[in-house]
């Protein structure tokens, strides 16, 4: 079983025999095994035993099983249960539906439900756009996955994808006040996914596609955007690209380089990689090499994947061929959206002066940031436990906040570029440094600035179907 890095704290329920179990011995053993006791809670005590919950932080490479083995060897101490706080916050799911008003009496009942509700239904029947003012549509997004490319965990199925989609829904609400429903589909068939989402769409003001593997994700998003009149946004593609561009705008300021001069290598030309390539080109990058597991994409080659054909024809002018190690020498920027361990320290040593490395595979990046740090000037990952978190969570709440408020029919390139510049602008020139190129998701300037920039871009490009008062 893989022990993921998020499980750095465990809670053990232990029964200590009053006669033979010694708490001091227990604490010493946990400490020697590499655990740091964070809290001790007494659950029950009587004349023969005490039951305690001990919260232990696992330091370095210490594992849960290592600590348990040590405890099992102690006299008079029985391990009743081990729980992981990460699992505890998932018990029963992470979100719930809350009514906005309370039904206190029959009169309320007859308004929110039958018979009163019928006239509201008929008003919408006569004019379907009233769904925006009389239902949850205005502020509600569906977070939809088929479970085929969940984080970097791969095709783990729709049930296993739910915790991620619930997490996205929490973030939508907490960061931007957007109500989001997690929906995981029991199909991988492109046409069936498109049909299902179209049928679900009347309920929602927008669709956030999540963790759908490439290349199917490209067709699904393209078709839905053509066939629906609400924005359809594949977060792993565009959310990631928006945040990468924001990070790069600031990182190149730190190293005093410019977009049109840097050589960029992007590894992992899947959902995130294709959109990152497109956005960097739109932002002025001219020297870009895209690498997937077969090596650098080059215009001399033929590809079955139409996206790879597009990328190969619009990048790598000198047609550099070979592996990542072959093409990374001289690169100013490495961007990884592939998988753990793809980038080696030896590769970093061949990069240009002041390398910028965004290693964003989740949950484990392309290179361990601690290994990379001595060789890079600016280091970023997708993780929240290192500085410079480049993660699409910085984008999707704010971009949908703006898109929903102006009832945008799509989220177009201009809105995405505006979102990137808005995120980048949160870090002022005075604050900018190697460890701070991108704001935290908890920075409360992010969503308001993105909202404003996204609405303005939607209005300027004629995709806004409602002009909020402050923009009139
Ligand atoms: N930090 C963030 O915000 C985000 C991070 N990611 C991470 O990026 C990674 C990719 O995600 P998606 O694009 O959605 O997946 P994807 O499955 O669409 O694309 C992954 C690509 O990486 C390529 N790849 C695999 N092994 C490789 C290797 N050894 N060398 C070069 N390329 C290789 C695959 O062939 C594929 O084209 C995942 O680890 C995911 O968690 C994805 C989206 C957002
Ligand atoms: C962050 C995210 O969406 C992913 O890793 O897939
Ligand atoms: Mg994702």
From TrEMBL:
Active site: 113, 168
Record: residues binding (S)-malate: 362, 391
PROSITE patterns: MALIC_ENZYMES
The protein's name in its UniProt record: NAD-dependent malic enzyme
Taxonomic classification: Bacteria, Bacillati, Bacillota, Bacilli, Bacillales
Gene3D superfamilies: Malic enzyme, N-terminal domain, NAD(P)-binding Rossmann-like Domain
Family: Belongs to the malic enzymes family.
Cofactor(s), by name: Mn(2+); Mg(2+)
Chain residues that bind a divalent metal cation: 210-211, 236
Top-rank taxon: Bacteria
Domain Malic enzyme NAD-binding: 237-459
Cofactor binding remark: Divalent metal cations. Prefers magnesium or manganese.
Domain Malic enzyme N-terminal as annotated: residue spans: 92-225
MF-aspect GO terms: malic enzyme activity; metal ion binding; NAD binding; oxidoreductase activity, acting on the CH-OH group of donors, NAD or NADP as acceptor
CDD domains given in the database record: NAD_bind_2_malic_enz
Keywords attached to this entry: Metal-binding, Oxidoreductase
């Amino acid at each position: 079983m893989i022990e993921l890095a998020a499980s750095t704290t465990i809670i053990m329920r232990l029964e200590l025999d009053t006669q033979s179990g010694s708490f001091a011995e227990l604490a010493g053993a946990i400490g020697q095994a590499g655990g740091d006791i964070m809290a001790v809670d007494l659950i029950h005590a009587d004349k023969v035993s005490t039951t305690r919950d001990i919260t232990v932080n696992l330091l370095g490479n210490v594992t849960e099983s290592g600590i348990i083995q040590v405890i099992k060897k102690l006299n008079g101490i029985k391990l009743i249960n081990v729980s992981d706080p990460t699992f505890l916050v998932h018990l029963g799911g992470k979100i719930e539906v809350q009514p906005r008003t309370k039904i206190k009496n029959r009169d309320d009942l007859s308004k929110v439900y039958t018979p009163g509700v019928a006239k509201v239904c008929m008003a919408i029947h006569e004019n379907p756009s009233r769904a925006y003012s009389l239902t949850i549509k205005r502020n509600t997004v569906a977070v939809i996955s088929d479970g085929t490319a969940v984080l970097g965990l791969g095709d783990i199925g729709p049930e296993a994808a739910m915790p991620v989609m619930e997490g996205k829904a929490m973030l939508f609400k907490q960061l931007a006040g957007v109500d989001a429903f997690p929906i995981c589909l029991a199909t991988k068939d492109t046409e069936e996914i498109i049909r299902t989402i179209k049928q679900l769409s009347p309920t929602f003001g927008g669709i956030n596609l999540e963790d759908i593997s490439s290349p199917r994700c490209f067709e699904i998003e393209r078709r839905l955007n053509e066939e629906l009149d609400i924005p359809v946004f594949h977060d792993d593609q565009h959310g990631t690209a928006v945040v990468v561009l924001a990070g790069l705008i600031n990182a190149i300021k730190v190293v005093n380089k410019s977009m049109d001069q840097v050589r960029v290598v992007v590894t992992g030309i899947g959902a995130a990689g294709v959109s990152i390539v497109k956005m960097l080109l739109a932002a002025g990058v001219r020297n870009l090499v895209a690498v997937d597991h077969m090596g650098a994409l080059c215009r001399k080659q033929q590809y079955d994947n139409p996206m790879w054909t597009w990328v190969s024809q619009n990048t790598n002018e000198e047609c550099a061929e070979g592996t990542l190690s072959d093409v990374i020498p001289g690169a100013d920027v490495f961007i990884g959206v592939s998988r753990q361990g793809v980038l080696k320290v030896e590769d970093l040593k061949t990069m240009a002066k002041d390398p910028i490395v965004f290693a964003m595979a989740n949950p484990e990046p392309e290179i361990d940031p601690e290994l990379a740090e001595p060789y890079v000037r600016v280091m970023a990952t997708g993780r929240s436990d290192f500085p410079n978190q480049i993660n699409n969570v910085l984008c999707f709440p704010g971009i949908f906040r703006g898109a929903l408020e102006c009832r945008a029919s799509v989220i177009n390139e201009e809105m995405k570029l505006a979102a990137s510049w808005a995120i980048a602008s949160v870090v002022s020139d005075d604050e900018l440094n190697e460890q701070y190129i991108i704001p935290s998701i908890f920075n409360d300037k992010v969503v308001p600035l993105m909202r404003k920039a996204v609405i303005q871009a939607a209005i300027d490009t004629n995709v806004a179907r409602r002009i909020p008062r402050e923009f009139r």
